[in-house]
Amino acid sequence: MPFHIPQEEEYKDYAVVMKGIVKQFPKVLANDNVDLYIKRGEIHAIVGENGAGKSTLMNQLYGLYNADAGKILINGKEIAIDNPKDAIAVGIGMVHQHFMLVGPLSVAENIVLGDEPTKKFNLFDLKRARREVKKISEEYGLKVDVDAKIEDISVGTQQRVEILKTLFRGADILILDEPTAVLTPQETEELFVVLRNLQNDGKTIIFITHKLNEVIAVSNNVTVMRGGKVTGQIPTKETSTRELANMMVGREVLLRVEKEKKEAGEKVLEVQDLKVNDNRDLPAVKGVSFDIRKGEILGIAGVAGNGQSELEDALTGLRKKIAGTVTFNGVDISTATPRDIREAGMSHIAADRYKYAMVKEFTVAYNIALGRHYKQPFADGGFLNHRKINAISKELVKKFDVRPPEIQLSAENLSGGNQQKMVVAREFDYNPLCMVVSQPTRGLDIGAIEFIHSTILDLRQEDVAILLISMELEEILSLSDRILVMYEGQIMGEVTPDEVTMEELGLMMAGSTLEEARSEADE
Amino acid sequence: MNILKAILDAFANPIFYSLTLSAATPLLFASLGGLFSEKTGVTNIALEGIMLLGAFSGILGTALFGSPWIGIILAMISGAAAAALHAWASINFQANQIVSATAIILLAQGLTGFLLEPVFGKPGSTEIYDKIPKIELKFLGKGSFLYNMIGSLSPFVYLALILVVVSWFIIYKTKLGLRIIAVGENPEAADTLGVSVYGIRWFGVLMSGLLASLGGAYLSVGELGQFTENMTNGKGFIALAAMILGNWTPKGALFACLLFGAADAMNEQLQSNPSLAIPSSAKPLFNLIPFVITLIVVAGFVGKTRSPAADGVPYEKKG
Amino acid sequence: MNKKQWMRVAIPIISIIISLLIASIIIIWIGEGSFTDRIDFLVEAYTQLIKGAFGNKTAVMNTIIKMTPLILTGLAVGFGFRAGVFNIGAEGQMAMGALTATIFAVNAASLPSFIAIPLTMIVGMLAGAVWAGIAGFLKATTGAHEVISTIMLNWIAYNITNWAVTGPFNAGGGIPKSPEIASSAKLPNLLTSQASFMSFGILIAITAAVVMYIILYKTSMGYEVKAVGFNPFAAEYGGINVSKNIIVTMAISGALAGLAGTLEATGLYYRFYGTLSSGKGFDGISIALIGQNNPFGILAASLLIGALRTGSNQMQFAGVPKHIVMIIQSIIIFLVAAERMVMTIMGWNKKKGAK
């Protein structure tokens, strides 16, 4: 049975109908005449690549953006949603990709914010807030400590708080924007159980994702978006990840990269008992040791916030090492500056592209010069050599297919994928011995992902030692030669991609050792 | 050790304590004002300018209507107006908050200097007008130690102390306070729950205007009965430092202001102590002490305090 | 010129126009008599302003004399802005630079001019650099915000210089001023007119602007300063020592302000006065903002503010207090800071989507 497009008289059975939605941003048409039909009581997945317009569409349903054209019907009634208040009033709740929580406030305070119970004289009634939050938390089986501060609880718990926030406001329609991006496979499973329970309670759930196996696992129907348009509407039972991928990208895609067999060479980077603190000066990396050889990709898997980013920063000199030694190419770089480390032959694709890897106000050419701006051929006796900077930039922009190929354009005018290509081009041009690559494909579309993956494999062929840190398990599994799993600042074990299962990886990411994970997975 | 003895003498002198309280009072008003603004996420280094306007308007009101009480009302109106300008630019137009505040300081200096002559007839300073009378606690016994300490204080002093409690109550016990904290820490989160980020920030900035102008009014109609050009003398900035030192809490601001007030009072006591015989030409060296202390405090404590996460970051409503 | 560059020029110019309009309203308001009388008063005020600034050779010389330190304090603040630091302390750096240079110059009688003059400048610049460097050092090491620390340093400088010229370094006569500097340290004159004279300080200030342009746009150092100003995290990632850059930027900024004070002491007053800086450091903020931190923009902005300051003295005779210039300046800064306000006023604000 194909997807049923409802007629107007059927709209009353639909929790959400969005018709002919158009949203124009200064540079892109984010939603181009989009229709969306969501039946009451279903779990409906919306899939699409980054920039396909899914979040924009949902932000309009939640009143964060106002549509340029089109209408929204909730339970068959046309309604104007100008702000989140209007959305909340008609029973819509949204869990955002980046959690919208206030760190120093407690769980209960976060949940009631904006709809606070009060006593006489408009005084905040904390007791009642705690009571009410406890009640709904028990009602839906979402356990939380109502008095804990948000900044002290885990990401998984924070997500539960976000869901409770919507339920507290009496939401019947829940929008979840990329809810699994920060979860372990097991936590994802738990979330799916919660979602099914909510569905049994009569809630309608809209689930935005780009992970296709999750769509298959949890949804009833799927809407696929590409380039601001709907390219497919289909009942989940009648489709496959391959078909969804094709609808998403518009062409056949390789779901797995081909990796040549290769013997690793000599040791390049050796890390011993490294300890690093986080921004709050609390231990984040608690004594890790590993090494990387030439022509080898070492993957670091783990859920966000388990010390990977502190490890990345410490290796590249951006963060102080509390204890331990790092030996690079025979030289101790434990206390070296970022410049020393770059000079020694390590380059770095940073996880946070906007914050670290580029100066968005600088031109593409100036960004290509970043890190080598003080020496030949980019500079000569303290003066910049603009002729050389431009020539090298032109060449790299062409080689790495950065579009548009205008080197005098400010980097902020490039798309995310092209910015990342620019960064990769620069870090490649260092001819490094070792490269630290962190979240290299975050927020990129499939075309750019394929390009970056094949580039990383090229580097491996050229005998570069690569440390790959990624939250995407697929990426780690398909690129790495060896995998380390990090949990709470420690390495839970080393595995190879051929001998480990997703389930074992997931258990390790949640704190089991390899042996524990093996025996638990066997049961 | 003459100097040591002079310091001990000061501590034994009840006047030292009353001087401490009165020196802390203008700082406390402005500090609490800055606190409200920054708690909602808008920095306000214009406190200095707002205090100056408050001081001027206080005297202006007194001169025009014959009552320092009306002067206070006029001071608060002018403070709110200056704060509104800062709020408008930095909230609605996402202006650089430090630059906008710098403009307001300059505007306050220019405006008060500009109006001084046409309105009061001479440049530099005004005549002396009626002040707000002090509250006399006669039952303490005139001349007694306790009387000299707290028996004759301006009502502003009491008001400032009451406002510490009121501010604490508003921020930590009310619905509004919860929203203030939320907006200052994560405005986007507040926005998605239907809390008006702009509304809360306007409230915070306006409060800073009202409170800082009261601090300024205290200097003119509360203490001197006169306005002199640039009479705030950096007090707005010291108040800002007190707010930081107090870790963005009303109680902390109180202690920090008392500390700065005590430094000021000590300075005054030492300068007037005949046994030290400090020549008038050396006075500037004593006058710089509070600024050195502030500098040390800011450098020494800034890393150990925690400002609201979104402090100074403009928020732009979506779509 | 692309649209963005055009905006950078247009916004300050429109801000200047708006502020002059507001000032006109204020002048009309303080005027007396009928509306036409008030308009006449306004016209008279502005005529005097222009005459006072450019009416004759002496007026032009006075404008250039006013403009000279403003160029340097403008460059000082603008250079700081480029590295993301707000040096509100040019006032104190200028005073410390001038005082130290004066102390040196008073005792430089034994040196020939070609040594005494440059050496005095170096001393003044070093003093300014050290004074600002304190704030840079505190920011880089403890995170103390430079706005608060430079303001505190301003007050400390004010009290130190005040103490110096009323106490140990007083020339007598009950006026807070230092003794006169040695004649070998005095800057030669470029122009004279009747009793007025103008030293070649202006040439030094213009040279400083050119040097700053070269540093910012042609050298690796300028590249680093801008990278730190735009995005300190990316700068660090690119191997740039952010702390060192902040300290060095502050020191250069302070050196420029110190030079401003030195030129005042050696080219204009021939001594240190208690009121030598008198707001010129703060004017640097307006000038840097109006000039959009571009060295040549700063030259133009200094001319504007210098002319306003010179002309306002004359305007005072027409009955308009010279504080009007501060009001004009504050409105310009305010509007440049809130550039979106200007864009809204001009209807250029094409915000995303219709709301």
Give the overall shape of chain C, derived from the CA principal axes.
Answer: globular
First-to-last CA distance of chain C: 31 Å
Number of discrete domains of chain C:
1
Radius of gyration of chain C: 21 Å
Instruction: List the strand order in the largest sheet of chain C.
Output: 1-2
What is the string of helix and strand elements of chain C? HHHHHHEEHHHHHHHH
Whole-number mean pLDDT of chain A: 90
State the total count of DSSP E strands of chain A. 22
The end-to-end span of chain A amounts to: 38 Å
Question: What is the name of the CATH architecture of chain C?
Answer: Orthogonal Bundle
Poorly predicted regions of chain C: 351-355
Percentage of residues in DSSP E strands of chain C? under 5%
Mind explaining what this structure looks like?
The complex is a heterotrimer of chains A (523), B (319) and C (355). In chain A, β21 (482-487) and β22 (490-495) form a beta hairpin. In chain A, strands 6-7-8-3-9-10 form a six-stranded mixed beta sheet, sandwiched between helices. Chain A has 523 residues and is an alpha/beta fold. In chain A, 33% of the residues lie in helices and 25% in strands. A two-stranded antiparallel ribbon of chain B has the order 1-2. Chain B has 14 helices and two strands; from the N terminus they run αααααβαβαααααααα. Chain B is globular and about 65 Å long. Chain C has helices at residues 3-30, 35-54, 57-82, 90-106, 113-142, 146-166, 201-218, 220-230, 232-237, 242-269, 280-290, 295-317, 324-337, 339-345; strands spanning 189-193, 196-199. Chain C contains 14 helices and two strands, in the order ααααααββαααααααα. Residues 351-355 of chain C have low confidence and may be disordered. Chain C has 355 residues and is an all-alpha fold. In chain C, a hairpin with a 2-residue loop joins β1 and β2. Classes of the chains: A alpha/beta (523), B mainly alpha (319), C mainly alpha (355).
